[in-house]
Design a protein that fits this description.
The chain has 16 helices and 21 strands. The protein is an alpha/beta fold and 481 residues long.
C-alpha cells in the first residue's frame, strides 16, 4: 500500500490523450495544472489537505511494466512508437503543494503540477484520488474532534470503510486531523497512528457469565482494562459486573481501570447513571467511552445533554464522511509554455463556479501580526511580489466593491516545492509532525470560520493583475467564440 505501483490506476482517457499528444508531436509541451476543490464538505468553513505522501510514493514508483504494455498493445488503438515511449516513462516535472494538515479553502491550488503534457495529464486520476479521499476524511475528523470539546476521539471505522486501503489511509488522515488513535492495526504499523481497542461483545458472550468474562479480561490486561458493558443490560448488569471485576482483580493488584465503553442505548442517560455508580464504588477516575454511529452533531448533542462521556469512538460516519461523502477536488489546465513563455489558459462555463483561474500562480496566507490569526488567502501570478511591510488592499473577486486594506500583517507562501525535474526535493515529515502542524494551523483560524453552522466566509482573493488576466481571457474568448 505504501510502495505499490498504481500506474494503470488512471482514467483510460489519460492514455488515449497521451497517445494523441505523442502522435501530434506535442508530448513535450510544458503544461501547468492546478488541483483545487470547489465546495467544503458539510457546508463547513474549510477543509484539511491530506494525501501528499501517497502522491509522492506514486510518483516515485510510476513506471510501465511489460504486462502493462502488453495489455495496452492488445487494445489495438495505440501507436507502437507510443508504447515504446512508455517503456522508459518516468515523471520528470515539477510539483508544488501545500503541506499535509494545512487548512485550505475553495478555489485555491492545493497542488500545482508543471510537467510535459503526457506526464502531467497521466497522473491526474491518482493525484485526485489520493488527495480527495484523505482530505475528505481529515475534514470530517476535524469536525468531530472539535465537537468533542477536548475529549479524546478514536477512529473505529475500518469494517465500514470502502475497502482495506480506504480504511487504512482514512485512519491516517483522521489522525492528522486530531483523533488520538485508530482501531486499524495496519495504520499503526505503516504510519504510527496508535492502534487502540479492547473487546467486542463476542468476548463477553464467549464465557459462562458477563462477570466471568470481565474477570478474565482484567486478569489478562490488568494495566489496560476497558470493559464493554452493554452486551446484556448496561445499568442492571454491565456496570455492576464491571465494578465487581475491578474489585476482585484490579484492586488487590493496586491497579486502576482504564474505562468502560457504552455502545448502544441512550448514551446520555446511561453515562450519567454509570458515572454515579462508578463514583460511589470508588472509581471516580474510571473514564467512560461512548461509541455507536456517532458524528459531530450527535457528540455535540450528548455534551449539551450533560452526558458523562470522557472519550468517543467514531466509526462509519467518520471513515466514510457519511453526511458529505464526496470531496470535489479537480485537476485543471491553467497554462502552457511556448518557447519559454507561459501562456495562461482558462476553462469557461455557464456555471460561474466552474470557471477556472488561469496562469501559473502562488498562494499566500496573510496573518495578523497582532494576534497571529489568518485574515485571508491571496492568489498572485508566480512572478508578482507581495510586500508585507506595506498596507495591501484586498477585494472580493466576485463582488469587487467589497474591499479591505490589511495593515500590520505578514505573509506565508503555502505551496512548497515537492519535485523538481522529477527529483524529490521535499523531506516527508512524520505523521506526528503533520498532526502537530495541523493543530497549530487550525489555531490560526478564527472561531467564526470554524463554526459548524453558517461559518464565516474566509476569502480567497486574487491580486489585481491576476483578476485582470482572468477577465481579459473571459472577454477575449467571448469575442472569439
Amino acid at each position: 500500500m505504501n510502495d505499490g505501483n498504481y500506474t494503470l490506476m488512471c482514467d483510460f482517457y489519460e492514455i488515449t490523450m497521451g497517445n494523441g499528444y505523442f502522435v501530434q508531436g506535442i508530448k513535450d509541451r510544458v503544461t501547468y495544472f492546478d488541483v483545487f476543490y470547489r465546495t467544503v464538505p458539510d457546508q463547513g468553513g474549510f477543509a484539511i489537505a491530506c494525501g501528499l505522501e501517497q502522491v509522492v510514493n506514486y510518483i516515485q514508483n510510476l513506471r510501465f511494466y511489460e504486462e502493462d504494455l502488453l495489455y495496452l498493445k492488445n487494445k489495438n488503438i495505440f501507436d507502437p512508437k507510443f508504447l515504446e515511449y512508455l517503456r522508459d516513462f518516468r515523471f520528470t516535472g515539477d510539483i508544488y503543494a501545500v503541506p499535509e494538515g494545512t487548512p485550505v479553502f475553495p478555489y485555491e491550488p492545493i497542488m500545482t503540477v508543471r510537467a510535459k503534457a503526457i506526464e502531467a495529464q497521466f497522473i491526474e486520476t491518482y493525484v485526485l484520488a489520493a488527495i480527495n479521499h484523505q482530505s475528505l476524511v481529515a475534514t470530517k475528523a476535524s469536525r468531530i474532534v472539535r465537537a468533542a470539546e477536548g475529549r479524546a476521539v478514536s477512529e473505529f471505522g475500518a469494517r465500514r470503510a470502502h475497502g482495506a486501503e480506504a480504511a487504512t489511509l482514512g485512519a491516517r488522515a483522521a489522525y492528522i486531523a486530531g483523533v488520538v488513535g485508530t482501531s486499524n492495526t495496519l495504520t499503526d504499523r505503516l504510519y504510527g497512528a496508535p492502534a487502540t481497542g479492547t473487546m467486542a461483545h463476542s468476548w463477553v458472550q464467549m464465557f459462562s457469565s458477563e462477570l466471568d468474562a470481565f474477570i478474565k479480561y482484567c486478569e489478562v490486561y490488568p494495566d489496560n482494562t476497558v470493559l464493554l458493558v452493554d452486551t446484556y443490560n448496561v445499568l442492571k448488569s454491565g456496570v455492576p459486573n464491571a465494578i465487581k471485576a475491578f474489585d476482585q482483580v484490579l484492586k488487590p493488584l493496586g491497579k486502576r481501570p482504564k474505562g468502560i465503553r457504552l455502545d448502544s442505548g441512550d448514551i446520555a442517560y446511561q453515562s450519567k447513571k454509570a458515572r454515579q455508580m462508578l463514583d460511589e464504588a470508588g472509581y471516580d477516575d474510571c473514564p467512560i467511552c461512548a461509541s455507536n454511529s456517532l458524528d459531530e452533531r450527535l457528540i455535540r448533542d450528548l455534551i449539551l445533554q450533560g452526558a458523562k462521556v470522557d472519550f468517543f469512538g467514531v466509526g462509519e460516519r467518520l471513515i466514510t464522511s457519511k453526511s458529505s461523502p464526496v470531496f470535489d477536488g479537480v485537476y485543471k489546465l491553467v497554462a502552457i509554455e511556448e518557447d519559454g513563455t507561459i501562456i495562461p489558459k482558462i476553462k469557461i462555463s455557464e456555471n460561474i463556479d466552474k470557471i477556472t483561474t488561469p496562469g501559473f500562480k502562488k498562494v499566500y496566507r496573510l496573518y495578523s501580526r497582532d494576534n497571529g490569526k489568518a485574515e485571508a488567502d491571496l492568489l498572485m501570478l508566480h512572478d508578482e511580489v507581495l510586500d508585507d511591510e506595506q498596507p495591501y488592499e484586498l477585494f472580493d473577486p466576485l463582488a469587487t466593491w467589497k474591499r479591505k486594506t490589511l495593515t500590520n500583517f505578514y505573509k506565508r507562501e503555502l505551496q512548497l516545492p515537492i519535485f523538481k525535474n522529477g527529483k524529490l526535493v521535499y523531506q516527508l515529515p512524520s505523521l506526528e509532525v503533520i498532526k502537530q502542524y495541523c493543530e497549530k494551523e487550525l489555531d490560526t483560524l478564527w472561531d467564526e470560520v470554524k463554526r459548524f453552522e453558517n461559518p464565516h466566509n474566509y476569502y480567497v482573493d486574487l491580486s489585481q493583475s491576476l483578476w485582470d488576466l482572468k477577465h481579459d481571457l473571459l472577454e477575449a474568448n467571448q469575442h472569439k467564440n
